[in-house]
Structures are given as C-alpha cells and as structure tokens.
Automatic annotation (TrEMBL), chains A, B:
GO MF terms, alphabetically ordered: DNA-binding transcription factor activity; transcription cis-regulatory region binding
Residue ranges annotated for the HTH tetR-type domain, each copy included: 15-75
Gene3D superfamilies for this protein: Tetracycline Repressor, domain 2
Zinc-finger listed as a keyword: no
Name this polypeptide is given: TetR family transcriptional regulator
Location of the DNA-binding region in this protein: 38-57
DNA sequence: CGGCTTGTTATGCAAGCGTATAAATACGGG
DNA sequence: CCCGTATTTATACGCTTGCATAACAAGCCG
C-alpha cells in the first residue's frame, strides 16, 4: 500500500533546519552532558535522520561550535537587553545588568551544562577557545564601562587601573554567583542571588545601588 | 632460566597501583578533556595494560569518581593548610584563606581543566555530583565560620541569615577570580588576584583585612 | 504533467570504546 | 626449590561512534 497520502518527510529551509539541529544539540548536552550529544541522539531529537547533520555541518565539531556560539550569544543578548531599556541613572543600569545576569533566563542548569562542557573542551580546542574568549572579553568591557559611569556619577572618577580592578572583581562576583545558582538553584530563593550580588557590588564600589534586598525601606 | 633475565612486569602494592592509575587519569583528563580519559589511554600513561584497571576498580566510572575525589581533596587540603598555621587574629586567617585559594598551587590551568571536565559531567552523573557537593559545602562552611569570627572580632556579630549571605558572596568572589586566573593567568600579575579578592572581601564585610595590595605601607 | 534539482533517508564501514575472560608471569611461603 | 596464588597481560567480543555513500522522494519549473 502506498501508505495513503502521507509524506515521509518534509523539506525545510536551511535556516530552519540549522536552528532545529542546534536546539536539539543544546537539549542533548543539557540532558546527558556533552558526551550524550551524539549525532544520532541529536538527529532523533530534531526529528531528522542522522545523515542530515552532515548536510548542514561539515562535521560534528562544527555543530558543537555553532551550538556554543548560540549559547554565548543568548547570554550576552540577555545582558544587552537589560541595558537597552536604558534607565536614567548609571547606578540603575548597573543594577539592571547584574540582575539580568543572575535571573531566570541566564541562571539555568541547561546553559551551565553547556558552558561547563565547552569550557572543559576549550582547553584542547582552539576554535572553541576563541568563541569563548570573544564573549568573555565583551562581557568584561561592558562591566568596566558601567562601573566607570557609576563612579563618575558619584563624583569619584576612577583611574584606569582602579577601574580594571573593579571590573575584574565584579565580573568574578557575577560569574561565581551564576555558577552557584546554576548548580544548586534550589538552595536560593527567587531574586536572592541578584540581591546578594547587588549588595556586594554596592559595597565594593562604595555607592548605593537601587534594588537592594532588605534595604530597610 | 626464564628466557633471559629481564622481567616482563613488576608487581606493585594495591595502594601504589591505585594511586598511579588515579594520577594517570588526571593527566589524561587535564590534557584531552574527560573524553580523552579512555581506559587504554589511562593504562598507557600509567605504564600498565588496560585490563589492570578493572582489577583495581569495578569499572571506569569508579576510577573517574576516585580521581575527582582526589582533585577535590587536593584543593580543599591546600586551603586547610593555610588555616593550620593559625594566625592570631581572625582577619589574618580569612586573608590567608583567600590568598591560599588564589595563589599558584590552586590557581592552575591543569586543576581548572580537571574541575571543568568533571563539573560538566556531574550534571548527568549522580556519583560525581555527590563528590562535588560534599567538597563544595565543606568549603562554604569554612568561609562562613571564618567570616563569623572576623565580624565577631570587629564587634559586629551577624545573624545567621546575614552570615550566610556573606559566605555566599565571598565564595562567589573566590570562585570567580579563581576561574579567571586559571583561564587567563597571563592577564594578571603575581598576587594581583589575591589582592583584588581581599580588597573586595574587606569592602563587603566593612572591615580592614591585612595584606591588601597598595596599602601604602 | 514529467523531468531535475537537492533536501533527506537508509545503509554500511572502520575505528574506538568499555568490558569480559583466559593465559602468562612474578614472587612469597612451605 | 618449587608450588600456589594473586597480579598482570593478552586477546576477543559486542556495542557505539562519526563519517561516507548511494538510493530515494519532495517540490519547483518549464
């Protein structure tokens, strides 16, 4: 029988298929670690056959790299969105930035699993290392610029060396809290991480930041 | 006369063999990621045949777990050593603790590579996750106890909730700086990370800590 | 409506994986 | 001195992996 009129597969545009494969890759990595992201598992989740992957990507490594780039982009975009709705005061911008990086969309076990998997691999894979370095430095520059604006507003302009030290420390706070939140999200209440981070950054810079939890208002 | 006098292998005690196999595993993980730690590669580096692994470990998973436990122990031991030579003042102890975790033996690309490799897998491997959780909570408890002593000395005893928040933040600072230092050690001068961390912790707690860089001595 | 392009599947292959099993060897105790 | 036993090696098996290739079919264009 000709299995009635049902088609066996549908053709899709290149953009759609690439996006689906990347998303399926992220799902697989998040679920079973980077070693669980085999071409067969990815294809199964994407609803296509395994061979199709090599029709859109030269090899599995390229798919993984594209997937990691997508994660980096998603995270930095999230942070930039928080800045797009630019509040009037620099202090508010900095607080919003910190909050965006420690909130639900970024603090996510799935993203962390990807990050850890790729970070571990970046030591032996120069291409992945480049992707990482790019997103990382962009993030730190953003922090440095925000801190500079905040200190200037407070009438305490900082020299470049001090600005750098502040950016490094604040970046570390955000990174560290992000990791803790991703690995043990159940241990922290909603917004608790962001509150801790903002309080810590405020103390670090010696300024008052809006949105501090328990500010005794 | 056994052909010629040369022995084909030597018998070693169980302790020695297990230690060698664990060390070989760490070498493999650090060099090529956790996926590069195959039983054959590990055995080759340890100078034994592949089959011997299963004579000392029920399976490869057990070897990996033992190897990760060794890494965690090594890191926490390093920090505890800094506390063993207990200085008089709590502030000095806290500073020494921070400095120990951001100095040469702990800030190391190889250890980071190991950490990242295992962390990535811990999401899908409950045994590894348990090993991690154990070492992690021990570290945080240490920080909390140190912070409590420092605040008490300063005449500003903190309630448990505040203590917890401080411990979380300081832990994050150390973690974040540790990662930055491991991944891009060339970007930081000697002792710079420790200096940034101590300054940040001092600001966070509102106390003066010894060993601050640029303290105008 | 029939051929053409090309997205898509199906199948196969060589390599590498972890593991199981039996043979070989070192080395201490009778 | 030689035997017994635990350690170590050697070999093989079944499975999965990433990748290559050929058959297939969906949708467009004349």
């Amino acid at each position: 029988m000709t299995t009635n009129g049902r088609r066996k597969f549908r053709r899709e545009g290149e953009g759609r298929r690439r996006r689906d494969l990347i998303e399926a890759t992220l799902d697989c990595v998040a679920e079973n670690g980077i070693e669980g992201a085999t071409v067969r598992a990815i294809a199964l989740r994407a609803g296509v056959s395994a061979g199709l992957i090599r029709h859109y990507f030269p090899g599995k490594a390229d798919l993984l790299q594209a997937a990691y780039a997508a994660v980096v982009k998603r995270m930095t975009d999230q942070a930039k969105d928080a800045l797009a709705a630019r509040e009037a005061r620099p202090a508010e911008r900095l607080a919003a930035f910190v909050r965006a990086n420690l909130g639900p969309p970024v603090v996510d076990a799935r993203i962390f699993s990807l990050w850890a998997g790729f970070i571990a691999r970046a030591h032996a894979d120069t291409a992945l290392a480049a992707v990482h370095r790019e997103g990382y430095l962009g993030f730190r520059d953003e922090v440095e610029s925000l801190v500079g604006a905040v200190l200037e507003e407070a009438g305490r302009p900082a020299d470049t060396a001090m600005l750098r030290r502040h950016a490094i420390a604040i970046n570390a706070i955000i990174d560290g809290l992000w990791i803790e939140g991703c690995m043990a999200s159940s241990l922290f209440g909603e917004g608790e991480l962001a509150g801790i981070a903002i309080a810590s950054v405020a103390a670090q810079l010696g300024v008052d930041l809006p949105g501090r939890a328990g500010s005794g208002h």
